[in-house]
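Supplementary Text 2. Reproducibility record for the structural model of the 339-residue chain.

All settings were left at their defaults, and a single model was retained for analysis rather than an ensemble. We include the record here because the model underlies the residue-level annotations in Supplementary Table 4.
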Amino acid sequence: MEGKRRGSFTIVELLVVLAILATLMAIALPSLARSRAKARFVRWEAYNASLNNDEDVVINYNFQNMTYRTTVERVSYAALRNGAAACDLGQYAASDYDGILRYLTGFEWRQGRYAEKRALQFDGRTAYVEVLGYPGIDFDPIGESFTIMAWVYIDRTSLSGTLFSKGTIGETQYDLRRLGDTLEADVGESGARAVFDRPALAAGGWYHVALRSNRGAFEIFVNGRLQPGQPLGEAGSGVSDFNLVLGTSPLVTTTGGGKPPKPPGKPFAADNSNRPDGPPGKPDEPPGNAYGRNRPKKSKGATVVSATSFFQGRMDEFLVFKEALSDQAIKDHYRMGAP
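Retained model, structure tokens:
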């Protein structure tokens, strides 16, 4: 007599099968997640490289070359490489807009939005980036249009700090700053200002931020979304003699009828050998500053220039366009780089 056939699995057999499937999934899912993250990085990398062929891109820092150095008047500096190669400005050279790393205690490179992505850590005390080139980014706030975008990581929302600035506090050509968990933009030296409080910038997350100015009408985007906020005045005309800086704002203090500061000169050498004040190679001085020279802190009739409102967090992409991008273009940039 033939044996009776079983029509179902036993509970033990089902549990064994489920255990095998769970083991396979535990092995496959991390690999799948890494593959997806790698694909997002490759997509962003290709998209960012394509922007180097855009005639309206003046600055494109992708933060991927940690050993890059630029040369200014035969002096070499650690810098962010400007990849924009097709800008149609007259006498434009991409290297003129490299971002020189300025610091007292040093910069730290960390992971960016993806495992393969690099980011610069701003320490919130002394570190910032200076752009010595100026004709291509010296936008008249009410006569020209531009868009500036960056990917930033917020360390602590309790701290305020400047993401980028051209001009000084109170006389800003354009800037974007964090005030706790809100953003504040200034466009025009007359003091037009707008505060944007949604969404709140929580600590521990990456954000895509954009400042768009269309001949004085300026707006902020966060993660591809236009933010509510009304300017508290009209943007004024005029440009600043100060260089564009990332991670801080210049502060000018005048005592005893001092004259306004002169336009920035060449940067200091890494060993301070070309400093006009103090002995060369002074160990407790940074390798340069954004204002061309150090001025005495205390003297009659002196104009004192210092840095303030330092940003604490990471940045792993920075772009400047000499046009007002459309809402869709800003949203597309966010989507192509979203982690």
